[in-house]
UniProtKB/TrEMBL annotation:
Pfam families: ABC_tran. Keywords: ATP-binding, Cell membrane, Membrane, Nucleotide-binding, Transport. It comes from Devosia nitrariae. GO terms for molecular function: ATP binding. Belongs to the ABC transporter superfamily. It is a peripheral membrane protein. This is ABC transporter ATP-binding protein. It is found in: Cell inner membrane.
Length: 282
């Protein structure tokens, strides 16, 4: 049985011009200890699908699915209290903008310890010591001192490490990383990816990596789902995807890699039309 199993997920938003389907009937599953990459251009519904799992979509969103289970438990049938007991503890998420995701009014130590208090009941010295251990684990120097720092006093890379510390605080079984290297420089991107891969192996977590970067997919994933306009276009193990892509959309993504530039012109996904293929994916 997959750790997370989603069947026929649809997410629609009520807009001024009617319902807009950001996710349209996709299946996603991930096994324990597996690294799954969900790849596609911006607006393909990658983040929305995972926010549906986390229960973090706004009230204007309608979420339906034939199944959405975690360890065999129906997430959609849970009460809000039951779901809150899982989210942040057994399922955790790292968001795209670390500085925006952290509360500027509280120290990073408070924000880490809040999770420990809520889900593990740790307080006082035990909570502080665990927070120091977490900052050490994610590579923050002088962790005891940094507990008293506010997000604006830290770099983007350090804030992302704090977000990772919060996410792994309760040893989750599934970690969702939503574009974890966005807005970071290339050197820091590599450090964050290496950190996530190390933590995934050490903690035995399943990891879902949301990205538009095929290089990240090649470096981190066991299996890949390719999305386009809310539809799943292809699913394959990472080696098969790069060597024998089946979807025309996947081929277009790979063709648009910088190393495939011809002269001064880089192919773009927009050079291709996929309406016929997308119709088949419906």
């Amino acid at each position: 049985m997959p750790l997370l199993d989603i069947r026929n997920l649809t997410v629609a938003f009520d807009t001024s011009i009617g319902l807009f389907k950001a996710v349209d009937g996709i299946d996603i599953s991930v096994d324990a200890r597996e690294v799954l990459a969900i790849v596609g251009e911006s607006g393909s519904g990658k983040s929305v699908a995972m926010l549906a799992v986390m229960g973090l979509l706004p009230a204007t969103a309608t979420v339906t699915a034939d199944a959405m289970t975690f360890e065999g438990r129906d997430l959609l049938a849970m009460s809000p209290g039951e779901r809150r007991a899982i989210i942040g503890k057994d399922i955790a998420m790292i968001f795209q903008e670390p500085v925006a995701s952290l509360n500027p009014c509280f120290t990073v130590g408070f924000q880490i310890e809040e999770v420990l208090r809520e889900h593990l009941g740790l307080t006082g010295r035990a909570s502080r010591q665990r927070a120091i251990e977490l900052l050490t684990d994610v590579g923050i120097p002088d962790p005891a001192e940094r507990l008293g720092a506010y997000p604006h006093q830290m770099s983007g890379g350090q804030c992302q490490r704090v977000m990772i510390a919060i996410a792994i605080a309760c040893n989750p079984k599934l970690l969702i990383a939503d574009e974890p290297t966005t807005a970071l420089d290339v050197t820091i991107q590599k450090q964050i990816l290496d950190l996530l891969v190390r933590l995934q192996a050490e903690h035995g977590m399943a990891l879902i990596m949301i990205t538009h970067d095929m290089g990240v997919v090649a470096e981190t994933a066991d299996r890949v789902i390719v999305q386009y306009k809310g539809h799943k276009m292809e699913e394959a193990d990472v080696l098969s995807l790069f060597e024998r892509p089946k979807s025309r959309y996947t081929k277009a993504l790979l063709a648009a890699l910088p190393e495939n530039a011809v002269g001064d012109r880089l192919p773009t996904v927009g050079d291709f039309r996929f309406e016929d293929e997308l119709g088949g994916a419906r």
